[in-house]
Request: fold
Amino acid sequence: MDRKALRHAMGGFATGVCVITVADPDHVDGHVVGLTANSFSSVSLDPPLVQWCLDLKAHRYALYAQAQRFGINILSAGHEALSRRFARENAHIVPDEELTHADDPLKLKDVVGYFACDLYESRLVGDHLVIVGEVRHFESDPVQAGLTFFKGKYGQIGV
Reply:
C-alpha cells in the first residue's frame, strides 16, 4: 500500500487542532511541554472520556506516554503559529511566555476548549499509542472560531 497516498487520503478529513500539554518532570520550575495533535476525539459521556493518538516516533514519546495527567487545548483560529510551534520538537512552555493560566499551567490562554484529564487507559495500536483520558474539568468558549486542518492546510470554522 502506498503510505504517502494513504496519508493524503486521510488528510481529506477536516479536523480541529489541539495542543496536548503535560508537566515536564525534567524541570523543577513548572515547565510544561506542548504537542500539536489533530487525533483528538470524544469517547464517552458516562464516564467522561476523550482520546488522542501519539506517534511511537514522536519526540519525547516517553514523557507523553507516561503522563498520568494531561491537558487538551482546542486551538482558536488565531493560534496557527502556536500550532506550528508545538508541532516541532521540544516545545517547552516557560512561565515567562504567559501562554498558560496561573490557576492551571496545563491550560493555554485563549483556547476554544480545554479538558483537564487523568490517564484512564492507553493501548498500543499500530504505529501509535492511543491514550484515553478521563475528563476531570473542562472549559469552553462558545464565541471563538476554531482552528482546522484539511489537506495539509490550516483554516478556521466560525460559530
